[in-house]
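Worked example

This section walks through a single chain of length 680. The input is the sequence exactly as stored; nothing has been trimmed or padded.
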Amino acid sequence: MPARWSDGRRLYDNEPVRTALRLDAWGLALLAVALIAGGLVLDRIAAGQDVEEVGNVWLYPWLLGAVAAPAAVGALIAARRPRNAIGWVLVAGALSLGVVLAATPYAWVALEAHPGSLPGGSWAALVSSLWPVFFAWPLAIAFVFPDGRLPSRRWRPFALFAAGSMALLMFVLVVAEQLEAPFSDAPNPVPLRLPDTLGLVRPVAWLAVFASLVVGAAAVRIRYRRSAGIERLQLLWLAYAALLIPLGVVVFLALGESGDAVVGFLLGMEAAVAIAVGVAVMRYRLYEIDRLLNRTLVYAFLTAALGLVYASVSLLAGVALGRGSTWATALAMLVVAIAFGRLRSRVQAAVDWRFDRPRYEALRRVRAFVEDVREGRSEPEDIGETLAAALRDRSAELLFRLPASDAYADSLGTVVEPSADDRSVTTVTHRGQEIGLLRHAPSLLERPDLLRSVLAASSLAIEIARLRVGVRLQLAEVEESRARVVRAGYEERRRLERDLHDGAQQRLVTLGIVLRRLQRSLPREARILGPALDSAVEEIGLAIDDLRTIAAGVRPPRLDEGLAAALADLARAAPVRVDVEATGERLPAEVEAAAYFVVCEAVTNAVKHGEPSHVRVDAVVADGALRLVVADDGRGGATRATGTGLSGLTDRVEAQGGTLRIHSPRGAGTRIEAELPCGS
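Given that input, the structure is written out below as tokens.
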């Protein structure tokens, strides 16, 4: 770093120097405001003396704003960032405007309202002729915005040309033979005059100033094309304010307005440019420029188009109904009202397509997806992928806020904790309610209008997807709860089976053995008790058989050997012929038990209600599921509504996460198909 730059920075970092600079900036700003305020007082004095060409009262706020806005913004920037030349340009521009604008009423009072009451009336008239200073500070801003430096060293000749052309024009106005209106009759107090041979200097100076304005616009354009991120948004603010000037002039010309209306508008634009510069430099609500510029273009085109429609309809209806007809006016208003909505959407799409292609393409993609969801061609849960593609951000991830919960889930229904990472997070809302979070690249925050528009267009699809994900999670919880109940019931049946086998059954067997031993040890004279003991042992045997039957109803013992063995026992015990073809593969115990009871209930229902001569049972494993088929040649007509048996089958299968289908036409037998997930 050159030594002089280092010294300059140390100078600015010195607190007394910074304080002095702040005081200077605010002092010059207050001086500019005081000048314009004094000028307005003098204008009122001139109006009291019936000076014809004084300003209208309604122009006063615009005059004050044209000076106060650049003064305040410039002082604020200069006080906070004294190294940035923009603040000092604004303060100097406000001061020059204040001097020129205050000189006009001063000259009115000194030359016409109270001649001789104020000194230097001719000099004030000369200063009021220097109105081209209106363009001086905006031109300087165009060259050094937003960092206070020229785009590059190659722009120094252009900047010197602009400064020289403005200085030449000021010089020509100062030494002119005749002052500018409205003081063309006042004598020029400067004795120096241009020779007649240099009469072309004045138009050349004006042409040079206009050329400088074009060069300044080119400087902004080149800097914009090279910029990105924050700097591009800053330049857009300046471009937006500058765009309003020609746009406003065109509107006034179209409306046939002139005079004070145009002056007021141009004064307002001076204030608007200063405010835009302040917003851009201080970065206050910087990101709103995308939306503001877009809406301005839309409504400008919309106003022009509707005005043309109104004029055309009024003209045609006036010819048909008669000039001045109120019906023609009413018809024109009706056509404009009808055309507004459709025309606005078309103009918005056209502006987006021409000036904001990423937004146009993103909204087109999202709206096409929403239409596909409405027509059933796409699933709402795919909205996350659509958003990532529309925003051109592969890292974008959409999380749904679960209903009546503070938790979030992804499109697959997995509950996710929004962990902190290097991505930014934007809340998605629908009708004022949070419905999700979008995690995305931080660069998207530089395009808030794009992000806001895309999320607004997709909010309905996100809400539908959120509710569907919530319902799926709740169903999964219900199914898991049912599965837990089934597993708990199965384990309880196993416990009862073990208790019956190891407890009561074994005690009865032991009791029978004890009685037999007692019978054998009886003396001869007590043999008369033999038949009674035989009867007791037989009753114990019957009790053991009953317990075994009960235990088998809780869970068949042959299930310990596999589903095929248990089904084979079931077929042998059936009153009709039952053919079984079952897998020998071992499955989870609860799946085998559920399959056995499904087949058992299906065969029992067939024998009880269908009167079949033959039943076939198939049990095969395919694609991670056990598929059961129980088919009979009975009379058919079985439905879930005819009894509790088939309803119980449905509940048992669904409790395992499976499905049950019943096909039972009358007179053609019954076919029951069940599918149980088994993880094989």
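What to look for: Confidence is low (pLDDT under 50) at residues 1-9.
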